[in-house]
Amino acid sequence: MFDLSSVDLLDAFTRELQLCKLTSTEHVVVLSEPGSRGDYVAAAFGAAKACGAHVIAATVPGGTPAPMPSTHTGAGPGLTSVLNDTTAQELLKSADLVVDLTREGFIHAPVQQEILKAGTRIIFVCDAPDVLIRNLPKEEDKAQVLQGVDLLKRSSVMRVTSKAGTDLTVRLSGSHPEFQCGFADDPGRWDHWPSTMVLCWPEISDGRIVLAEGDILLPFKEYVRTPVTLEISGGHIEKVTGGAEAELLNTFFDDARDEWARSLSHMGWGLMRTADWFATAMYGKDELMGMDARAFAGNFLWSTGPHPVLGRESYAHLDIAMRGCSVSVDGTDTVVNGKLAGDE
Ligand SMILES: [Fe+2]
After folding, report:
1. Rounded mean pLDDT of 281-297?
2. Least crowded by CB within 10 Å, which of 74, 243, 245, 273?
């Protein structure tokens, strides 16, 4: 018997750490939990060595404070063992680069902000090996997403429409536009491999979102089968109607018993041209976080629950990826009928 899976991933992880501008004088911590993929820990460790950097593989106990099962949801609640352990936090703060191989990551855990403030860069990796390799970032992806961020920053209204009936008006003031480009190369930066997207955190949006057949509900990793209409007022979901998936969403919001469950969170559009809409159908749910759906070029991605800009802490986080939408920002088209402007 032999196991070459980590060696097979070494080139991709090395390229990824090079994109994170890892240098030979820097310190890398490969963070894992017992349920992490062993081949990823080995590949990240080997890649850090290949870059000539100092490396420590740190494994901490599993378990998150989130009430939902830990199956690569994207909720990013962090690990209780790190949230409660200042020694672990100090180790992460002292690193130049953390390769986060935990099952859920720390994106919505406030402690991550403290670690980033220390100048540490964090790259989170969770999806299946061929998803990582197919969507290996390119350096120029960053310039592309920054264009979208600049547009959002200087604009006041984003409008989202679709032939299915979506018509949403989003106020952009104070919405903190951000991006993901698949690598973390600036001090204090978090990013996710793979991802290429532009997003913002608006407070107020009004209108209607109509999910069409084939749109993707995350973290359930399920396709919409029957259209769902969501009435939105003041950034809040007032009413959800439709078939089975409408029922599913209403049940999720009720079961969450969370004051922010029906509030909108981040929204934006994907630019990852290598993404595969059918990855959600072709992999087991435990193999994927679903970045093919979240970052798919020309999607409209919106979400519910936590809103760090408004100080709303919530574990009830849905990401919903839609095809066939048009997104315009102060009259500039960024997505037209589900394709990036210029790609139609
Ligand atoms: Fe999200």
Report:
1. 95
2. 243
